TrEMBL record:
SUPFAM superfamilies tied to this protein: Tetrahydrobiopterin biosynthesis enzymes-like
Domain Dihydroneopterin aldolase/epimerase, residue spans: 4-117
Pfam families assigned: FolB
Protein purpose: Catalyzes the conversion of 7,8-dihydroneopterin to 6-hydroxymethyl-7,8-dihydropterin.
Protein name as annotated: 7,8-dihydroneopterin aldolase
Family: Belongs to the DHNA family.
InterPro entries per record: Dihydroneopterin_aldolase, FolB_dom, GTP-CH-I_C/QueF
Catalytic activity: 7,8-dihydroneopterin = 6-hydroxymethyl-7,8-dihydropterin + glycolaldehyde
Pathway participation: Cofactor biosynthesis; tetrahydrofolate biosynthesis; 2-amino-4-hydroxy-6-hydroxymethyl-7,8-dihydropteridine diphosphate from 7,8-dihydroneopterin triphosphate: step 3/4
Annotated GO MF terms: dihydroneopterin aldolase activity
Any one GO cellular component localisation term in the record: cytoplasm
GO biological process: folic acid biosynthetic process; tetrahydrofolate biosynthetic process
EC number: 4.1.2.25
Amino acid sequence: MDKIHLNGCRFYGYHGAFKEEQTLGQIFVVDCTLSVDLQKASHSDCLEDTVHYGLVFEAIKKQVEENKYILIERLAGAICQDIFDQFPLVQAIQLKISKENPPINGHYDSVGIELERERA
């Protein structure tokens, strides 16, 4: 299956298990890989034959910036569901969400989760 990648998408949101995260917010970094059959688009050169990654970016942004979840696992699930609902050509999604500055005492680059979902 062919892939469309959106890497290092950065958004400000209010997700987390701690009250401070839900009040102060933080940056969330999202990497998204969509499995899509791109054969038709590779011949037609028509946007209608692919998935408009600008619109996918906006769908992710809306979930991260307009909603509030305790778990980033739930945020990721909501993003996947929105993508499946809005983009029928998407057959599978690999979605990674990272927090660079969670309230954890220690030294690290980031913490996060990754989901893989397939269209039912």
